[in-house]
């Protein structure tokens, strides 16, 4: 653990002052979006105040299992990650691309104005910061730029919260994407809950973050505060429910397109696409052209899609990947191998959502292990 | 795939990447019973769409949908823009009903083109199967327009039946030329057919080119391309001088929708034209 930077002394925001964060952000024109309990899960939605945070709740996760449980304390961020990711705000599940209408001599296309409200993401985990950075590469780093994503991204204020615990399906430590936020945030919080004390170690990661911090009541951290924050990160690191051995993983998967394990996993996989929907980096979409009943007005929509659907690979003559075996192989090989060639990074951040939300508890760390253990050299 | 590997300058869309531009249908030409060519001109003044042979556009039928279709016209002239397609689905069926005067949405051009510079000073062999001749037609136009830059040019074209041949007027002109060795074969002959019978791969063995100094361009159904590339290799044309054009599902054409992935490549931006040695191992994997 690095010693605290003496030039930037660690700063503490007391729990009692936490509502001020909402007020300061609102004053700067931000709508806060963050975790809240709904339908038996912690999801991300617009929040009016801290009373909507999942105070005193935690989650228990394992393959195919997610349960909310009461905590013994009143932690605001005492859970890991739920089914939602921030992807839904930056890359909405459905977005209109254009409207068009019939004219006297043909048709006219009307470009869509992108609505990009200023959003403050509260409670972004380290794995999620990495996921956002990965989608930045996908949508902003190539020959073409997704202008709508770019605008939403520019208008987002990211408040990270370092994990003080790890879930049963977490493996960010082995993916080197957590549990402590190191980059990509405007503000980072570490929740301290010890001996009746409830406070947040708070650090700015950007100029805007420093401005927001300056508007908040804060005071220098004590040695006990920084020790408690470090202990929280160490605790999370030590309790990762899963791990993924990424050594040579690209070549391992490229070398094994015909491994018998693909058949084995296909016999269990329902091809339901849950894993791709909950994944914070999966970026595939469909483009749908629709018209109204009069046929005078048409729209184009871009919607989340999944490589697990049969229609995804359809060409003249049928689907390129008609079997579940080929589709699971495509997903896993893309996520962990070809993604590296495409974007210079793995497509996996070790958040564990695909394991938790798989209805039959397929665990990619286990599938990779099985392939590795029986791969011909 | 390293984007710096391929040809540096390629024509890019002039408009917002996801917004189609209306183009007017000037003429519809029936190629076969189910295949047609559309000649298009831009609406609202001259705004030509420069393209490299082998590139494609996304074509939008108002209210129906959008499909990727290769450009099949002459790249040496500004107008018209020509697309040739077969009626195979909802969008192409609606496209087949368009008449002169109707509008069609166009965005593009997208993708990699045939690397014509790699063929300069060499023999060229072009192998086409069925509708695969469409993306090769701009290449043939280009080669003939710059005929002195190339040595022997062989065109081998196969269709299922004589009735399935597209661009028949071109084929007549091409077969009459002395500086282009064009051969056509059909899988099944009908009475009156005096040409070759059999799959197009059979023509590779005796086609007039020097394998040690030849560049090959191949487009057709994937199985046809696989066997053609095998035959070309058997004759001694190395994989790094063989090029093919792949078809995959495409929804955006700009690398965002993910549908066209082929190994680590996006067919829409890294392809559709690939050098064979860069996809040969992928082509051996079933259902990739």
Describe the secondary structure blueprint for this structure:
The complex is a heterodimer of chains A (377) and B (288).
Chain A (H helix, E strand, L loop, with lengths): L10 E4 L4 H9 L3 E8 L2 E7 L9 E6 L2 E6 L16 H4 L3 E10 L2 E6 L7 E6 L1 H15 L6 H8 L1 E6 L10 H4 L11 E8 L2 E8 L2 H9 L3 E2 L2 H16 L10 H6 L6 H8 L5 H5 L6 E7 L5 E8 L9 E2 L2 E2 L4 H20 L9 H4 L7 H10 L4
Parallel strand pairs in A: 2-8, 8-9, 9-10
Antiparallel strand pairs in A: 1-11, 1-12, 2-3, 4-5, 6-7, 6-14, 10-11, 13-14, 15-16
Helix pairs in contact in A: 9-11
Chain B lengths: L20 E10 L4 E8 L13 E6 L3 E6 L10 E6 L3 H7 L6 E8 L12 E7 L3 H13 L7 E7 L8 H9 L4 E6 L9 E2 L3 H4 L9 E6 L2 H14 L6 E4 L15 E2 L2 E2 L6 E3 H8 L5
Parallel strand pairs in B: 7-8, 7-11, 8-9, 9-10, 11-12
Antiparallel strand pairs in B: 1-2, 1-6, 2-5, 3-4, 3-6, 12-15, 13-14
**CATH architecture descriptor of the largest domain in chain B:** 3-Layer(aba) Sandwich
What pattern of helices and strands is seen along the backbone of chain B? EEEEEHEEHEHEEHEHEEEEH
Main beta sheet strand tally, sense and closure of chain A:
8 strands, mixed
- How are the strands of the biggest sheet of chain B laid out side by side? 10-9-8-7-11-12-15
**Which structural class best describes the helix and strand composition of chain A?**
alpha+beta
Indicate the overall shape of chain B. globular
Low-pLDDT residue spans of chain A: none
* Highest CATH level, the class of the largest domain in chain B: Alpha Beta
Q: How are strands sequenced across the largest beta sheet of chain A?
A: 3-2-8-9-10-11-1-12
Strand content of chain A: 25-35%
Largest interface: A-B, 51 and 43 residues
Task: Report the radius of gyration of chain A as a whole number of Å.
Answer: 22 Å
Global outline of chain A: globular
CATH-defined fold name of the largest domain in chain B: Rossmann fold
Question: What is the H/E string of chain A?
Answer: EHEEEEHEEEHHEHEEHEHHHHEEEEHHH
Count of helices of chain A? 13
The assembly state of the depicted protein chains is heterodimer
If you average the pLDDT of chain A, what whole number results? Answer: 95
